Amino acid sequence: MEKMRFEGKVVIVTGASSGIGRSTARLFAMEGAKVVAAARRLKRLEDLRDKVAAENAPGVILPVKTDVRDPAQIEAMFDTCLKEFGHLDILVNNAGVLDGQLPIHETTPEVYDMIYETNQRAVFLCCQRAIRIFLEQGTPANIVNVASAASLKGGAMYVTTKHAVLGLTRNISASFFERGIRCNCIEPANILTEINKVPREKGIGILEWQMRAGKAAPLHTITKPGEKKPILGKPKDCANAIAYLADDVAARYISGAELKVDAGWLNM
Q: Are 146 and 68 in contact (CB under 8 A)?
């Protein structure tokens, strides 16, 4: 029997309770990985674990309640991974929050902190801890960050933080490839997820016509009524791209890549 791509691998996926993160955690488990699924909503993580087990997945899901805005909880997430599985091979930094397309002059200190702590600081701290673990292990490992096509178009803080993710991805890729550590990112756009949920609940930068867009992705919501809507992608489209970049066979010589998952939207 052919060996599964991620058999024996240990993976951490942040933001794993819904959308891209949930789909990614499931894909890794279905291909043999031991997955630390981290997010704030523990019940959803436990539901994912049970569904994957019911599908007789060769891998497993370990739910770990984690708010990545809290550095102590990030450390605890990695500690739990090492305690339960003994090592780490792949980190997927997926957790993120939208700023409701707020322009810079309307961005409050509270919104700034929320977006920065989730989208930028958490990614930095997760990469930092993972790199330390990888260097100590001395084995091939890799990181896949979830940036965004909105690093070019979107609200001021979302653009700022997602650009930071691109910069960090490039820095790590250039600094550690000779040590066997790869780092890449994907840039999704128009993916049907719940990323609008937080700004919608907090009333951050949401216009009436954006409210009508429901759970549509951010670049979908900024298309005004009457204008042609883009075809929405699915979380599994991003999960497949992440798995490709995490595959040490298919992507062995790829590091620092920025893989767009947008059906060509940025080229339009």
A: no
What pTM value is reported for the model? 0.89
For the cut 70, the answer to whether the pLDDT of residue 136 exceeds it is yes
Q: In what order do the strands lie in the sheet with 181-188?
A: 60-65, 34-39, 10-14, 90-93, 141-146, 181-188, 258-261
Residue closest to 23 by CA, chosen among 54, 55, 52: 52
CA 2/CA 159 separation, integer angstroms: 42
Question: Is residue 237 pLDDT above 70, yes or no?
Answer: yes
Q: What is the mean pLDDT of residues 41-70?
A: 98
- Please, which pLDDT band fits residue 151 given cuts at 50, 70 and 90? low
pLDDT for res 266: 73
Positions annotated as catalytic residues are 148, 158, 162
Q: Evaluate whether 157 touches 107 at the Cβ level (below 8 Å).
A: yes
Strand partners, 34: 10, 60
pLDDT greater than 80 at residue 247? yes
How far is 250 from 31, CA to CA, in rounded Å? 15
Torsion sign, CA atoms 19, 88, 32, 181 = positive
CB burial of residue 43 (10 Å; 0-12, 13-18, 19+) = exposed
CA atoms within 13 A on the CB side of 42: 3
Do residues 260 and 184 lie in contact, with contact meaning Cβ atoms separated by under 8 Å?
Answer: no
Take residue 17 and report the two structure tokens written for it. Answer: 């309770």
Which residues touch 67 (CB under 8 Å, ≥6 apart)? 40, 73
The residues that bridge with 64 in the sheet, in sequence order, are: 38
Distance of alpha carbon 91 from alpha carbon 111, whole angstroms: 27
